[in-house]
Amino acid sequence: xxxxxxxxxxxxxxxxxxxKRYSELVVRxxxxxxxxYIGSYFVRDTFKSISEILIARGLFSGYGWExxxxxxxxxxxxxxxxxGLGKFILGVLFDRLKARIALGLTLLSxxxxxxxSVWILNTHSLILISxxxxxxxxxxxxxxxxxxxxxxxxxxxxxxxxxxxxxxxSHNIGTIIGPLLISLAFTLLGVQGNDPVQQQNVVMxxxxxxxxxxxxxxxxxxxxxxxxxxxxxxNVHTLFGExxxxxxxxxxxxxxxxxxxxxxxxxxxxxxxxLFVYVLRYAPxxxxxxxxxxxxxxxxxxxxxxxxxxxxxAIPGTIIFGYLAxxxxxxxxxxxxxxxxxxxxxxIVMFSFAGKVVWLSLLGLAWIGFFCYNPINLxxxxxxxxxxxxxxxxxxxxxxLFGYIGxxxxxxxxxxxxxxxxxxxxxxxxxxxxWFVPIIMMLLCWNVGxxxxxxxxxxxxxxxx
Length: 465
Hints:
disordered C terminus; single chain; 76% helix; Growth Hormone, Chain: A; mainly alpha; globular
């Protein structure tokens, strides 16, 4: 990569050997983080893309529940809640562990427990099934906060938003690839076209493809270190001429959480907003394949495109709004989130009122995906902006805890019951409520910006605000 181009990308003049060495290492570390998180999402939501096949195979029947969709919703709630708990608990604990070890173990165990979670459905033991789903969700939760901590150590405040944004689309890429790996497995295992019987017979073997691929991706983490200092370089703030934040005091975990996280009211506004944004994300993601089968009798080969289109729409939206949030209003990111929230509204209307019109449903899904993923990204970046680097994992982990516990219970268990009794109108009502609440929370965060912004770029009025 040419020096001038690299300088522009990193916003850093490579005029010393140390900065040149940093530029080489940061590209490698970022690529590893990106690929590692893509790998974790090969299995993270792929279960949802094959939900209708598993329901048709009878794997959610025979437990005494009135409808298999309620059991499916219960298990998805279980995974979501445990994922949120894992984000916070493991985020706190893994702040004290080498990131390459934490992320490597996460990928290795995620692939294994994903395969086990699908195969264990054949036992029809609700206790055993619940236990495996609990472990799978909890373990997966550690990848996100650990990655954000590494990003905080490798990228300065002035470019952190754009790099975190580019990294953030890795979960969309992984979620898209997961169902495609299942489709590849169907092809290689001899499934003909859209035959639901054949799909049901081979799905237990097809899940080996994404599961084993995720386990292999764990090897990538061996080539990464947590921060530039571990390579003998200066910290990122010195390299970029930024104000060096005071380090976190060496106190016990609870005292550190109280001082650096629990006492900051802006974080709580972000966490509440994140809960409802995750409902916006996971309500379609969890139920759209079931909805497509119910509304148009689509089997996996067609229904998966609803799943994929929702995720694909997120990629350009996340990048565009992440870039704008770094460039506009001196990184007061809540303002760009308010703009994107109002722009999202037509997509919710289209999806909710499309009826039997397939193309309008797809357009509405893509529209929601385009606008709903950038708040998930920017909420985490706002947490990074507010807290010190040493507690980024805990702060973003608690953000995830709110998102996944809230969305896990509401989208899986509550919405599953409502859909069973009242139909998919319940899904559409959820979307409208989940769209409205984050707007109020972001108005309360109107002036929230990075604490590490170089002092010379901030006016007295901004500092006072």
